Every structure is written in structure tokens, then in C-alpha cells.
Amino acid sequence: MADILFSLKNVTKRFPGVLALDNVSLEVRRGEIHGLVGENGAGKSTLIKIVTGAHAPDAGEIIFNGKKMDRITPHHSMSAGIACIYQELNQVPYMTVYENIYLGREELSNKAFGITNIALMRSESKKLLSTLGLEIDPDTQVGALGVGKQQMVEIARAVRASAKMIIMDEPTASLSSKETEELLRIIKHLKDEGVSVIYISHRLDEVKAITQRISVLRDGNMVASENTEDVSIDDIVKLMVGRDITNKYPKVKTKAGKELLRVEGLTRKGVIDNISFAVHEGEVLGFTGLVGAGRTEVMRALTGADPLDAGKVFVQGREIAVKQPRDSINAGIAFLTEDRKGQGLILIQDIEFNSTMVNLKTYVSGLFLKLKKCKEDAQLMAGKLKTRTPSISQLAGNLSGGNQQKVVLAKWLLSKSKIFIIDEPTRGIDVGAKVEVYNLINQLTGQGGAVVMVSSEMDECIGMSDRIMVMYEGRITAEYSGVDITQENIMYAASGMAQVPRSA
């Protein structure tokens, strides 16, 4: 019999109007990398919160390391040896690497006076990082590190705390391919040391490559737990969504119409250099490149989120002055940011508020707000976009990633925008919700809108774009369309090996 480290038995969790987990059972073996997958809203986040003590189950039991955990709190969970590395990293950026590794578990040189043993913590951190094969200076401030290195520090902290099981929630969502390889190497090292890992990701190729077993949640139910070698990616997708997805990128070709947006010579010293492009009615213009190429910085500059040193922006042939985001909004430019939670939504407000906030002035009558009209429009958008929610009174922070993306889109559709800049449209959302987002992009272009899509997923960019701009170190190195849109061409231009001529 396999050595079971952790098990959930018949766990159920209800929230108002939602059965989040329905009689769910799960087993994780000692020293196993166990994949946990499912669509957004399937119950993965609720399961994590129960395991880490943030939520209490309504029914069922939790057994860890042979002991039943009757009353689990975050403290009990950590003390037992359970650690969780969230997609939004939980660190103190202005503190050093070694201080973060020992945060809450500081070594003391004098217990009576609470004096910390800095020399010991620094030297032990250095040894630990070296053991994990990480070249990170323990005296560096965490905020000065890239996201990939910050994630490694979080892992080191879990190892230092003697974690027996580490839950990783979308660990590679913001990482480059090189950082991803480094992370997967460390996860395999943890497995070899006998640590169990629950690996949660929408990147099914990674899940398939690194796990020994995979469990699939759908609509709050555990529908399968299989040996990884016994299931294909197509099998996993079908289990997740309950149906076959035959067309991963359902791009609908439309005829490009008149020019809606043109930018000329956008420059922000040290960030982006002489950026020029145009996009037309019915067109999806893809922007791609390696992490740090400057794609997001271009979009923030042209929408007024960041200052410009030079450049012009034209909407439907008319030059507009963009000094702040409100200027681009008034011109009909919608910017769906990469950071849905931090910049796209107000998480403590409900769907109705988030859907109508950009266009709030249209709901004002004298001194009063037309609340009935706000509710009607928000309800209409929720239905049109098939937002999965018990009501539009649901807080945005309680929605899954895919449904949060729909609320962001609802906000901009109600603003009557014609130009949609969508930065990482499917980051952190599942394969079924991705197809829904792609279909929404088709709707936007089919209704005469123009979409500028920023994506670090090359397949997505190729599958959904009419033309593609490739960036490297703050400048556009190539423009491709038609048969020239190939992975080889894009990677050549994205790597900066040579200046690739833009097409005419």
C-alpha cells in the first residue's frame, strides 16, 4: 500500500448560493508530485483554503501524516508541515532574502531580550539556497529580485520551515521559460528529498511532464484521480470541462476595415523606443516577445497609465493628447490590464459596481444615480458574457479568474469602447474559459471593434492574431502576417539576434 501523507475524505464546503466542494476526497502520497487541475470555479481555491486552514469544511475530515486534524487553522496547518506558495507571492519586499526565509521563525541569540541571531540566519540561508542550487545573495532585498527568484525564496522559506507538503498555485504563470525550467528542477529536487507537492496549473503540458498522478475537479466534484502516464492532455481537458474541445483557438477571420488606432514614435527613455503601429476595424493585432521585452509598457504608455517622452496617438485619424487614463477612455480605448485583481477590478465591490464604474456618468440624473439602470446593464452583461455567479451582488474578489476577466470585459463593453487592448487575456484561467475569452474577442472584432492582444503564449498569439508585432528590449523588431506567422520567425525576432525587417 502506498505511503499516504495527506488525505481529504468526503469534504463538503458551502457558501451562500454556491456548493463549492461536494463530497470531495483526495490522497497525496509521500514524496509525490500530484497535479490538481480544473476549470476556474471548479473548487481548487476552496480546497487550498481548507487545507491551509483559511476555511473550515462543513463536512468531511482531513488526515495529515497519520493524524486526523479536527480543528485546522493557518497556524495548525503550518505547524503540521503544510506550506502554500500562492500565485500572488506572500513576501515583505523591503526585507532581505534571509529575513524573508526566517520570517515568523527567527533564530534568537538571546531569547530573554528577543535579540535575533543575524549571522546564523544569514549563513544558514546561504547554505539552504546553495543546497537548492540557487545563486541568490541572502542580503539582497526581495523586492529587487525578479518574480522567478522571489518564488524560489518562497520555496526556500517552506523548506526551512520543514514543510512535508507544499502546495503550489499557478507557480509558472508569471515566469519566463528559463525560470520555469529552474522551478521544475527545484520541484524534482524536493520530491527526491521526500517532500510532497500539490501542483496546481492550467498549463497542462507542465502538469503532464512533472507529476506522477493527476486529480481533476469539476463543478466542486472530484471526477478523477489517475496515474499521469495513463491519461493524455486531451483526456484531462475532457475531464475538466465535461466535453471535447476540438478547436483550441476558434479564430474567426474578418475583413479589416478602416483604421481605428495608430501610434507613431512612442518613446519612454530606457523603457520603449520609437514604437509605431496601427490596427483596423475587425482586426486582432498580436504583441509578443520574451518577458521584459516592453509589451505591457507600450500599452500603459499609450493609454496614459505611464508618462511618455515622445510620440503621437491617433484614434480614427484624429490625434488625441493622452496625459492620463481618462483621456484614452474618453477617446474609446479600453485597456484590460494583465493584473486583473490589482488594476482591473475593485475586489471588495460587487459585479454590478465593477461593471458600471467606468461609465458611471451615464447613470447620473441630476443629483441621483439611476440604480435600476445600473442593475439592468450589469445583469445584461453577466448574461451576455455567461458569467458564472449566483447574482451580480457577488463580490468580484470571490469570482474565479475567468469570471473576473468577464467582469473586466463587461466594464469596457458598457463604456462603448471600439478599441480593446487586452494584456495577457487568458493568464491564470483554464482551457474551457480560454475558449470563451477567444470567442469574446471574435465578437468584438465581428462588431467592428479592433483588438490589440498582448500575450506571452506564442501559440495563443499565432492562433488568434491577424498580424503580429514582435518586441525585444523595448523596440519592435518584426511584424508578421499570413504565412509568415511562424514560431521560428517569432522566436528569431523575439531573441534579438538580428533586426528583422518589418513587412510593408
Question: What features would you describe in this structure?
Answer:
α5 (147-160) packs parallel to α6 (177-192). The strands form 6 sheets. The protein has a 6-stranded mixed beta sheet with strand order 6-9-10-3-11-12, with helices on both faces. The chain has a 6-stranded mixed beta sheet with strand order 18-21-22-15-23-24, with helices on both faces. It has a 4-stranded antiparallel beta sheet with strand order 2-1-4-5, covered by helices on one side. It is an alpha/beta fold and 504 residues long. A hairpin with a 3-residue loop joins β13 and β14 (272-280).
Q: Please tell me what the overall shape is.
A: globular
User: Which class best fits the helix and strand makeup?
Assistant: alpha/beta
**What is the typical, i.e. mean, pLDDT?**
86
- Which spans of ≥5 residues are poorly predicted at pLDDT below 50? none
> What is the helix content?
25-40%
Strand content: 25-35%
What is the gyration radius calculated from CA atoms?
Answer: 24 Å
Write the layout of secondary structure elements.
Elements: E1 4-15, E2 18-29, E3 33-38, H1 44-51, E4 59-64, E5 67-68, H2 74-80, E6 82-85, H3 97-101, E7 108-110, E8 115-116, H4 118-131, H5 147-160, E9 165-169, H6 177-192, E10 196-200, H7 204-210, E11 213-218, E12 221-227, H8 233-241, E13 259-268, E14 272-280, E15 284-289, H9 295-302, E16 310-315, E17 318-320, H10 325-330, E18 333-336, H11 340-344, H12 351-356, E19 364-365, E20 368-369, H13 371-384, H14 401-413, E21 419-423, H15 431-446, E22 450-454, H16 458-464, E23 467-472, E24 475-481, H17 487-494
Parallel strand pairs: 3-10, 3-11, 6-9, 9-10, 15-22, 15-23, 18-21, 21-22
Antiparallel strand pairs: 1-2, 1-4, 4-5, 7-8, 11-12, 13-14, 13-16, 16-17, 19-20, 23-24
Helix pairs in contact: 5-6
